[in-house]
Amino acid sequence: MKLYEIFIRAKSGLNHRHVGSLHAADAQMALQNARDVYTRREEGVSIWVVEAAHISASNPEQSEPWFDPAADKIYRHPTFYPLDKEVDNM
Amino acid sequence: MNKALEHYLLRLADTALTQSQRLAEWCGHGPFLEEDIALTNVALDLLGHAKLLYEQAAEISDRDVSADDLAFLRDVDAFKNPLLTELPRGDFAYTTLKQYFLDQFNVLLYAALKDSQYEPLAEIATKALKETRYHLTRSRDWCLRLSLSTDEAKQKIQAALDDLYFYTPELFETDDDLNQLIAESIMPDLSVLKEHWQEQVDELLNECQLQVPKSGWVATGGLRGEHSEHLGYMLADMQFLQRAYPGCEW
Fold first, then answer.
1. Which among A2, A36, A40 is the top mutation candidate for probing chain B, defined by the most B β-carbons within 10 Å of its own β-carbon?
2. What is the pTM assigned to this prediction?
3. At the N or C end, where does chain B have fewer CB atoms within 10 A?
4. Residues near B244 by beta carbon (within 8 Å), at least 6 away in sequence
């Protein structure tokens, strides 16, 4: 059987979020298994499954050259603008 | 009417409970983790249906009984489930095909019972139907998957069909009480249900390229409390705690 990554949308309007993985012979079985394993307690209203082999991932060993350079460049964050009081979550 | 209604509610409840118990036996023994969870999920759904039905039966009963009394303190000859649901769980193909026959039956039955003239039963059916529809999708897909895969899987599900097929006509049996309820539109005409069931089953078995056994002995007896030896062992397992420690609670 193949490994599938499971993404669940908790409620309408939210994004699908990765919740875990499971085994299945095909995509349909993966959806059914995801329904039974990950949505028993009202965790979701929609499920995506993706065969793990189809995901290309960045290399953890290269996380320093890839991600650290952004750490000291605060000017890239849009935090220098005055906001109206009415705007809450920016 | 109450006697006939109680009889039918117990028929439905006992069927759901024994079906649930057999599926629950897979807990920790499923072919792989995900399927183990899925099977016991279905078992819990069915236990939920049984609970609602027993509660309703207890409520209308002349005797002072609870749902637990009905599930745990009746003996074999008081149970009214068809023999099909008490058969040992067998291998995975056997469980899958048996589940398909029952899911297909339950979907048609609960869809019809939604229109029951007896409101409490219509409400239970509405709730059960949603879950049962999912069960049917699952067991149907599994029948196809097993039948159209390896020779070994195909051989096992064919063997299951040869064994199980002649237990299915009993699902549609009626007696005087049930005929009275049918006349009062409290339950559907099971002979009509049987035609729809047969159509669906024939279509799937054909798609699965399985051979329907031609003729054979046909199971009967559950409605009258006449059961196979398997039910006694099942009840011994299931009822032990309540019998050894009466009134025991978690």
1. A36
2. 0.90
3. C
4. none
What whole-number distance in Å separates Cα of residue B109 and Cα of residue B178?
Answer: 14
Residue of A nearest to B34 (CA): A33
Structure tokens at A11: 């409620």
What pLDDT digit, counting tens, does each position of B66-100 carry?
A: 999 999 999 999 999 999 999 999 999 999 999 99
**d(Cα B145, Cα B205) in Å, to the nearest integer?**
12
Q: Amino acid identity of B103?
A: D
| Residue from A1, A19, A32, A38 whose CB has the most chain B CBs within 10 Å, to mutate | A32
Q: Which strands make up the sheet holding A16-24, listed edge to edge?
A: A16-24, A2-9, A46-51
Residue B129: which of B104, B101, B110, B103 has the closest Cα? B110
CB B173 within 8 A of CB B220: yes
Residue B133 CA to residue B215 CA, distance in Å, equals: 30
